[in-house]
Amino acid sequence: MNILAITEQRDNKFKKSAFEVVRSARTIADQTGGDVISLVIGDQVQAIAGELAGYGATKIVVVQQPTLAKYSSTAYAKVIAETATQLHANVLLLSATAMGKDAAPRVAVKLDAGLASDCTALKVDGGDIIATRPVYAGKALTEIKIYSAIKIFTLRPNVFPTGTSTGISGVVEILDIPLVESDFATRAVETSQASGKLDVAEADIIVTGGRGMKSTENFKLIEDLAGVLDGAVGASRAVVDAGWRPHTEQVGQTGKTVSPTLYIAVAVSGSIQHIAGMSSSKYIVAINKDKDAPIFQIADYGIVADAFDIVPALTLETKKLLGK
Amino acid sequence: MKLAVCINHVADTASKISIASDGKNIDKTGVTFILNPYDEYALEECLRLKEKNTGEVVAISLGGDAHKETLRKALAMGIDKAVLIKDDSPRDSFAVAKALADELKDISADVIFFGKQSIDSDGAAVGTMVAEMLGLPSISAVIKLEIVNGTVIAEREIEGGKENVQTTLPAVFTAQKGLNEPRYPSLKGIMAAKSKPIEEKIPKPSEVKVEVLSMRKPPSKNAGKIVGTDVSAVPELVRLLHEEAKVI
């Protein structure tokens, strides 16, 4: 079984999820045998390819040209599918990120492959890979199996370990995949990223504010606490629908499903759709003045009090602890 | 402008989920089904494009008779034609995309819209698969769309930012929350929708590549410790997070 781990970089910096897919490919290959090949796509990405060494790839394939500097759904899908064909890959792993979720379905059609999206666990059973996929935003979990000759899995970011060095030093190779103008039917022309802003889907610590925060301005308290913890700000659906925070921060069934190490829910009551999106967090803290709020039923630690009293004190106390 | 929108009929976000006796599906008893929320944004965008450019909106749904309810809602909101591809056998994303692509191939729409994902299976794959099957460009998770003389600039969400993506029509789009504010069907629309026809079609059988072996509820979390009821609990909370949970 040859596994192709497609790694994601933006502005020639690997996403953490890139290391997660390579490491996951290694974990599978250790049980099934076969090679782990990492693929890096972009412009002048050869310079960073070496960073993947140690995570378990026996070969690191680089496909680079100036037109690949920014993501193109059509061109990237072609590069991935052709690389998989040329290197005889039977299993493809991508991250379930904005890029991976967009490229994987196209690659699946090109390779006539079954696709399992947003997996949270992979295990080897005999010669098969059995994947765990949350459905209904995490209200239920499925175990699935792919029957096609080529199988594609996208992995939820921040769930799979990157592990320690394997001692395997992958060889970097350049692969030339000829592309023509028509391969770029869809292309990103501009990418804007708020500098240093952490996305809820990628954060280890999330501080979420709910309806009880009462206004946009009051989210300053949430931002301060998230800042001290190097975490991301999350928002409940009510908050987003009220226009207090952008939809990118929404956690829950019509927002993002997250599983950080620490999730602090501030003035969030805990509706079914919200809990579905965050209940797989490792530790949950709830701060709410309503002792009957459903969020307390899944919280590891709770404080039943007014968020406006607790959050500033918590920020201060955390600052003290961390020496900030 | 010819517009097509693919819509799904799914369990409401407020639903509690329990597992059916086959251990592979949800138990539908007592569950309210709605138009998939992301498809509602897709539908609204098609209606707005029609109002701006004139044309026709066709809505397509793949599923059993229950999906007619969702197609009626689409009719009430203002679409021109409803098509039910009648098949409620288990299908993976690939097989769903195949059935929809077969139907869309004959429609030759300028704009094909999907919701970015169905909130049941959460695969987020069907729209982009259909684009590849039809040889069309696509932009997924769109939060802003501008079309001028067949040239498209769309904004899509990426981690921690946004991406402006360019393409040309015909093209496939998948809608993310934030694209627009969907309208409510008018009473007149609801009344008129009752008598409008829903065309029924039978899809070709399609091979399923991904099988669900089992479905289960996630491990339930138990309520933990209430650390306190006023600000004096804060130092203890920080201590627990630092020493017991070791997360800060």
What do you see in this structure?
The complex is a heterodimer of chains A (324) and B (248). In chain A, the strands form 4 sheets. A 7-stranded parallel sheet of chain A has the order 7-11-6-1-4-5-12, with helices on both faces. The longest helix of chain A is centred in the first third of the chain and has 17 residues, at 16-32. In chain A, 27% of the residues lie in helices and 29% in strands. The mean pLDDT of chain A is 95. Chain A has 8 helices and 18 strands. Chain A has helices spanning 16-32, 46-49, 73-86, 98-111, 219-228, 237-241, 272-278, 307-322; strands at residues 3-7, 9-10, 13-14, 36-42, 59-64, 91-95, 114-119, 121-125, 128-135, 140-146, 151-155, 171-174, 187-193, 205-209, 232-235, 262-266, 283-288, 301-304. Chain A has 324 residues and is of the alpha/beta class. Chain B has 248 residues and is an alpha/beta fold. Chain B has a single domain (2-201), classed as HUPs (Rossmann fold). In chain B, strands 9-8-7-10-6-1-4-5-11 form a 9-stranded mixed sheet, with helices on both faces. In chain B, strands 2-3 form a two-stranded antiparallel sheet. In chain B, strand 4 (56-63), helix 2 and strand 5 (81-86) form a beta-alpha-beta unit. Chain B starts with a strand and ends with a helix. The chains are: A alpha/beta (324), B alpha/beta (248). At the A-B interface, helix 3, helix 4, strand 7, strand 9 and strand 10 of A face helix 3, helix 4, strand 7, strand 8 and strand 9 of B. Strand 18 (301-304) of chain A pairs parallel with strand 13 of chain B, so a sheet runs across the interface.
Beta-strand percentage range of chain A = 25-35%
How much helix, percentage-wise, in residues of chain B? 25-40%
- Rg of Cα set of chain B: 22 Å
Overall structural class of chain A, as computed from helix and strand content, comes to alpha/beta
* Rounded average pLDDT of chain A: 95
Give the overall silhouette of chain A.
Answer: elongated
Cα distance spanning the termini of chain B? 55 Å
Question: Could you say what the CATH architecture of chain B is?
Answer: 3-Layer(aba) Sandwich
CATH superfamily of the largest domain in chain A: HUPs
Shape assignment of chain B = globular
Poorly predicted regions of chain A: none
